Every structure is written in structure tokens, then in C-alpha cells.
């Protein structure tokens, strides 16, 4: 854990002063600072997103000057806390394993599904009338950090929902018991979760009490501030945060675990708020407000979305009719592939004028369907039919007779086609990475660079005399504190790092002594100073 913390803080510190420079073919340039997901900038962005949710759901003034109209008539919030013991049976659970168990409970083992069923089946809300924000947090932040779970993780699941369809008149007491099944599911599926930390029976009032595993709030004046403060609205620099937070952060950094996630509804609300602010900003090229121009989106979520931001939040879904299907479009393209003016088939670039680059491999979906029908017919028929018979049996348009004949003859005349348009002079590209000393480094084209990583303990073990096996009568000894041990060197390598803060192998080798009871005087075990003197 200590090694992971050291590597985590080192990796974060390397971002200090790092900038990316972008340029275009016209000679224009600009630079932006590079940050990771653990700095002050990221924390402020998370806080701003929470505030955006409050504006979109309950109304309020945007920083850019406009005013958001409340999308929900009576918004409320619920806070569910999911945790687990770090010593469930008296044995300490490794921190990454513990974090995986808590997160997997929600993401993969049914807790999220139970929450969805609670909101949409038991409470009867529509999918766009509720959403969740999951935020991981460290234990030990509110006390002295001495608890058994200090530095380990737990989850806050903030649930936003509109109470107007429920007809509760701001009385949420009956809603609290509905969330009990979510807590029950977590205790059931999370290996290290126990009832004692999730005992909602001890909560006398879900609305009045805020320290239990279920807490409701029907009249939060500032929902964004409330949830941001409750769910990790720490905006100070990473190195200024408590050690419990740093140790907890090293778990997520080393395991490459996400510590926050939001449902699509909340993500779209945040995107819509940002879209509105761009339209109101003098520094943005966007002029259309959110939803002024809409397009159809076949992806997951709303069908009609804003053309500027891709969010369907607060957009009337009846504004556009569903587009023609791929099959119908393919038939239309096949029918109109011939240009009346040139009597030639249009190229891929001509058929797709808005694309920067595209490639086509194989044949159209219409021809693929016809090919399958013909090949199936040939496979099961006793006598080879004529082209006319093949068209009639499979209800194929006669205009495809030539293609059907080619399939029957075993021919395949499809050829791949592609194009890439020349980039505009105004398009930006990453030109260089500039470090804190002003030195420029060429970008590597993106992606992930893999490099061997040696943490301090491993470096000392590999680059000092500790890499050698002890001989007869030999023992390692620390000259700083006289600590001695007879092992493979791992204990002493860790001793140098943890007890004396020595991370440099050369320094560690000078502090390291070898007791030689039989005076074997092996050369590989000689002190660096002795080797230097003899040289």
C-alpha cells in the first residue's frame, strides 16, 4: 500500500506545469494545462456538475447569465450509503479486493438493477424522472482516522427524483421504506457487507436523520451543494488532503478504478447545462441554445437530441419522426446510385459528402440479403432454377436480375472503397507537450504507452547487494539503526524505504552492511566504499 501511495503521488506531481500545445496550418497556436483526475481542477469540475444538476432540475441562474427552467415540478434527493467491513472475519481484506467487492455489488451483482426496479416499478416513475450519482469516498475523513475501516472505501449513491408524479405533497416518509430493498440487496450480494453497518431499523425518520444508510431530503435549497459536499466536493489540491484520502486514492489509482459514475439521465442534464452556457458565452462559437436544433439519435437514450451537445434532456421527443430504416435507405441508395447526368454509379465520397473519411467493404445490405436468399435456394433445391425462377421464388425485384445471375455463377465483384478528405487549414492538432522547464516533447500519436514500473522497494532489492543470496554465516544489517535480519533481502529493502525514507538504491547500498561471521569476504558482498578503495 505504501509503495502504491508513493507511485500515486509521484505520478500526480508529474502533471505539475505540464502543458499541451495545439496548432493549425494557419500558424495559430494555443496551450492548455494537462491535469489528471486527482487535482483541484477535476474536483471543481465535479462540483460544477453537481450544481448544473440542481439548476436543470430545480431551476436557477447559470454562471453565464441565463436562467434555467426547472425540468421537474418537485425534485427531491435520497442518499444511500453502501459499505463493507475491512476485517469481516478478523482477517484484514486487501484494499483493492475490498473496493472491488463494494463496487461490483452495485455495478454487476444486482444492486443497480434493484434501485431501478424500486424507482420505476415500485414507485412508478418514468426513466426520465429519476437518476443516480454514485460517488466513492474514504472512511476516516470525519474522525481521527483510527477506525478499522480508515482509508478503505464506501459508496454514496445520490438519487435524484421527481416527487410530483408520486402525489406525496412533499411527504417523503413513505418513500424511505422503498429504498430498504436496495440496502438489503447490497448486504446479500457483497461478501464483506454486514447488517450492522446497514441497519435501517435504527433510523427513526428517513427525512430528519442524515447519518444512516438511507437519508431523504425534500426541500434542499441547493441540491447541488448538498450532494457535492456529501459526495466528495473537496476542491483543495491533492497534496493538501488528509492522509486517509491519499491512501484511499492510491487504491483507485493503482487499480484503475472509477470512483464516480452517473446514470444517463444525469449525464444528459449536465451536458444540457453546459450547452446552454456555451451558447451564452462570448468566447464560444456556438450560437444555438440547447435544443434549438435537433437530430435523431439511434443510440441508447432519447431519440431526439440537441445537435450541438447530443443530449436529449428537456427536448420534446415528438419533434422528429423516426428516420427510414437501414433496409429502406439501402434500397433507395441502390435505386438512386446512378446519376442521371453522368449515367455512372456515384462514388462513396459523393454519396457521403459530409464525412471526413469513410470506407466501404463488401456490398450493400440489400445485395447481402439477396445473396443469402439465392445461396440458400441453391443449397436446398434439387434442380438449378433459371434467373427468372430465382427472382420469383424469393420475391426479388427484377432490377437485381444481373446481380442474381452473378451470384448463381459464383461471382463476387464487390470491391473495397475508401476516401479521406484533406484536412482544413483551420483544424487543430496536437503539436507538442511542454514540461515545466519549457522543454518540448513530440506527441506520440495518442494511446497508452506501456513502460516497466519499479517501485522504490523493488528498485532497492534489484540494484543493491540485496539482490545477492546470503552465504554461510552472512547477515544483512542497517548501519543507521543496527537492524539485522537473515532473509532474501525483501525485509531490508522495505525497512530502508519505510523506516528511513531511503528510495535511492545507491544510498541504500551505502547504508547496508553485511555481517560476515566466517570472514569469507565475498566480492559481491563488499561495501561500495571498499570496492572503490580496492579499485
UniProtKB/TrEMBL annotation:
Top-level taxon in the UniProt lineage: Archaea
UniProt feature, compositional bias: Acidic residues: 324-343
Pfam families tied to this protein: DUF1424
Region Disordered, annotated ranges: 320-346
Protein's name in the database: C2H2-type domain-containing protein
Source species of the chain: Haloferax chudinovii
